[in-house]
Design goal:
Radius of gyration: 20 Å
Shape: elongated
Number of helices: 4
Number of domains: 2
CATH superfamily of the largest domain: Hotdog Thioesterase
Helix content: 10-25%
Strand order of the largest sheet: 1-3-4-5-2
Strand content: 25-35%
CATH class of the largest domain: Alpha Beta
Distance between the termini: 13 Å
Order of helices and strands: HEHHHEEEE
Oligomer: single chain
CATH architecture of the largest domain: Roll
């Protein structure tokens, strides 16, 4: 553990823990979006029929076409948020400003279907601080929750950020 004077845990970090962003809402999912996504991710093979064949999909436990697990209704934004200046360059990089991706996990719940409107919200859920060979190092976990228009959980992504 780092000493109190060396900590990378800031007051801002403490205040943000457990608080989630305002929801971002994707346009309604179109059946053609699901089909095109499935074709793209399975190319050059034919995608499983549950992603494009309505007659087949009716015979599955889902009862209709569903989107592949990795389907992203936020993939084609018309408006993109600007990259924060702090992430755009390494100018002034010092202790606690350097970082790397520590990986992510995803857990899936309700499948996405044509007509669904998906909302996402993100929040800092936990952190661990350690002294590594790089010096004081902070491992943060950010959770992104996707829900559908019925408030049902669709997916939870946990991302680990490493700052040193």
């Amino acid at each position: 553990m780092t000493t109190e004077s060396e900590t990378l845990v800031t007051q801002d970090l403490i205040e943000r823990k457990g608080k989630f962003s305002e929801p971002k809402v994707a346009p309604p999912i179109a059946l053609s979006d699901i089909r095109k996504w499935a074709i793209a991710v399975y190319w050059p093979d034919e995608p499983p029929p549950m992603y494009w064949d309505e007659d087949y999909a009716k015979t599955t436990r889902h009862g209709s076409i569903i989107a592949p697990l990795d389907f992203n209704p936020f993939a084609w934004p018309v408006h993109r948020e600007p990259v924060p200046a702090a992430r755009a360059s390494a100018d002034g990089a010092g202790v606690g400003t350097r970082g790397m991706n520590g990986g992510q996990t995803e857990e899936y719940f309700e499948p996405m279907r044509a007509g669904d409107v998906i909302s996402t919200t993100t929040g800092l859920t936990e952190w661990v601080e350690r002294t590594t060979r790089l010096g004081p190092t902070l491992f943060t976990t950010t959770e992104t929750r996707w829900t559908n228009q019925n408030g049902e959980l669709v997916k939870v992504r946990k991302s680990i950020g490493i700052r040193y």
